[in-house]
Amino acid sequence: MKKRWILGLLFVSAFVFIGMKWDLPNTFLLNEHLGKVFAQSAEDEPLVVQREFEKVLTLQHEQPIYMKTERFIQIGELQADQSVAIIEEDEDYYELRFGKMNVYVRKAEGTIEKKKIPTLTQMKRYGAMKTFQTTTVHEKADSQSAVLLKLEENYRFPILHEEEDWYIIELGGRPGYIQKHSVELDKGLPVLVYHHMVPRDLMKSAASTVSVEAFDEQMAYLNDEQFKSLSAQQLYDYLEGRLVLPDKMVLITFDDGLLSAKEYAYPILKKYGFTAPHHIITSRTHKAEGAQQFDAEGPIQYLTMSDLKEMQDVFQFEAHTDDLHTLTDRKYGVGLALQRDEIRADLQANLAQLPNAVALAYPYGQYNEEFIAAAKDAGLLIGFTIIEGYANMNDSNYEVRRFGMTENRSFEQFAKYVDGNTSWQ
């Protein structure tokens, strides 16, 4: 096993947060572009072909296109006399595919017929774009060609391909072409990570700790700027191109399952209407029995399973291993020395107490190929690192970047990051 562990470490490299001091060891990671997908069409296969569909809709008048979440949200407008394939219908709506997600068009005057239309031969994850105005989508890579649809402003839409000066999307089987200069590439979503939290006058160290005052100021800013919080499942759907998101979205995550989150973060998040994934080390949820009195100046305290049940309206509880959040004397996470099946067994124990978890935060941010494989085996969809950057489609879903929040971070740094104005090397 020792030989396997040493060989495994040859494939990982250390990464230290720049500009801040953590009491965490260096992060171990794989190639930071592992799993990067490029949507290049095969040379021997055309990207667009004519294909016959059983039900093709052609409307006489333009109609809004809706995305269905808790409610119907308009994300675009299908133009008149444009033919698109539908997959289902009910009394009120036609259902069709928009890339990898389903969207809806309210029934109106038009025709349904069996018909051939141009369609994409490949549906790959390429990236995403942001619209900052109503955006025209043409039926061909030609600005003089007819308009297929118009997209709403201030949304993040998945891109399937690119072709010279055009991005290509898909609606109802039809390729749609968007001039690159009319939109901007989406660099990704901001993901924040917090650990411990105490009032500023009781802080003993800024490492892995943020003050209650700073956290409240940050959440107030997100609220004032009309940001909405995401779940890990929604992040996954976005990364897979299955969810169109508004521009101002943020993921607020917590690691370690500390009692300070219940004492301070929970009421602040609730005050501003935000939710947050919280990564729990389940072997530590049994360290206390009954109701705990929080002591901001005492030793670290952990949430119990009873605490978790009380906070389900704000926190979604995610994986952080059952008993692998420990360092060796060489400052390596103990999980790095384990084989895939051993890590998987620990994650299964973790998930037995967190049945709704879809994401894993690697202990101390350290991971390797065995850890990623075990996470996949356990059915987890996302792996969170402590590598700084935005969560985007160019990285593996098991190497999702986050921005570490401690008292060493200024409010200006926080605002610049969530506003999407931070550039990463």
UniProtKB/TrEMBL annotation:
InterPro entries noted in UniProt: Glyco_hydro/deAcase_b/a-brl, NODB_dom, Polysacch_Deacetylase
This protein's UniProt keywords: Signal
Taxonomy, superkingdom: Bacteria
CDD domains assigned to the protein according to its UniProt record, in alphabetical order: CE4_yadE_5s (cd10966)
Signal in keyword set: yes
Coiled-coil stretches noted in the UniProt entry, renumbered to this chain: none
Key word Lyase present: no
Domain NodB homology: 248-425
PANTHER family membership: PTHR34216, XYLANASE_CHITIN DEACETYLASE
Protein name: Polysaccharide deacetylase family protein
Native organism: Sporosarcina quadrami
